[in-house]
Design brief:
Layout lengths: L1 E5 L10 E5 L4 H5 L2 E2 L2 E2 L3 E5 L3 H8 L4 E4 L3 H4 L11 H14 L4 E5 L9 H15 L3 E3 L7 H8 L5 E6 L5 H4 L9 H17 L3 E5 L3 H10 L4 E4 L7 E4 L1 H4 L16 H17 L14
Parallel strand pairs: 5-6, 5-12, 6-7, 7-8, 8-9, 9-10, 10-11, 11-12
Antiparallel strand pairs: 1-2, 3-4
């Protein structure tokens, strides 16, 4: 058993109280895949705030504090400008708001690629200051040495191959990867290298489906698809895309709700009542006793 902070969902105030919890562990996630098969697919969504974590936690095995927060929270053009301080602040919030899912935090661009030692220092700070269970980093064979360095020092690592958003400037955009044989082979080899280096799981993003299937079959650890295949060992989506916070979403996203319209309509109703002076009403004001 461990102790975390679980927010009181009956109030909008952030008044955490200690609560005993038993989270899913990284080894438990890794054991989902046995002899090349995963009977219970891994469910993962991104989360960026304590309240999001509360709402998603019971349904997910993994919550990822993704550097996609650069776009969906901060309005940045890509994940490249995201800072380590941003990731730590949001990572800590998600850990506080959850109790069941294992929480992972993305290593932001420029904080781990220089050397395994740099990656360790960044990862250690994230785990210390957020309470997260592990980290995720982008890159294939070139990052295998770093993955091995981290895992040998007690830091669980999730890899990420295929379309790697931090490399958008080099890739030239967000198009699907692996359409030619050479790139397809490289993606699969990248996954094998990360698996052999000790990654407990690997995200494959934005690849043509046969690559995702071949990669899932080629490695021993669970493969989490996003724009991959239903035959992967699990799936992940950016939660804001999944709930319909944006009008335009990538091809591989299924919108399960239209939250943006709900928020917009609520704001419109509020504005109308303020302007016609029907809000606040008797129920929202304090009257003399």
């Amino acid at each position: 058993m461990s102790t975390t902070f679980q927010l009181d969902t009956a109030t909008s105030r952030a008044n955490p109280t200690p609560a005993p919890v038993k989270r899913l562990t990284i080894p438990a996630i890794r054991r989902r895949k046995k002899n090349g098969e995963t009977q219970e697919p891994v469910v993962m969504l991104t989360a960026y705030t304590a309240r999001q974590a509360q709402l998603l936690d019971e349904h997910c095995d993994l919550l990822l504090v993704g550097d996609s927060l650069g776009q969906v929270i901060y309005g940045l053009p890509s994940s490249v400008p995201v800072t380590l301080d941003m990731m730590i602040a949001h990572g800590a919030a998600v850990v506080r708001g959850s109790w069941h899912a294992a929480v992972l935090v993305d290593l932001p661009f420029g904080t781990y690629e220089g050397s395994p030692q740099q990656a360790f220092e960044t990862s250690a700070r994230i785990l210390k200051e957020t309470g997260a269970a592990g980290v995720k980093l982008e890159g294939g064979e070139a990052m295998a040495e770093t993955v091995r360095f981290l895992t040998q020092r007690g830091i669980p690592v999730m890899g990420h191959v295929g379309l790697t958003p931090q490399a958008v400037n080099q890739l030239g955009g967000y198009g699907a990867r692996g359409r030619d044989a050479a790139e397809a082979e490289k993606i699969i080899n990248d996954a094998k290298a990360l698996d052999e280096a000790g990654a407990f799981s690997i995200v494959v993003e934005g690849v043509v489906e046969p690559i995702a299937i071949a990669m899932t079959e080629a490695v021993s650890c669970p493969v989490i698809g996003i724009g991959g295949s239903a035959r992967c060992d699990g799936q992940v989506l950016v939660v804001d895309d999944m709930v319909g916070m944006f009008e335009r979403v990538p091809r591989f996203v299924k919108r399960y709700a239209d939250v943006a319209s709900v928020i917009s309509q609520a704001a419109a109703d509020y504005a109308a009542e303020v302007r016609n002076r029907s809000f606040p009403g008797i129920e929202q004001t304090y009257q003399p006793k």
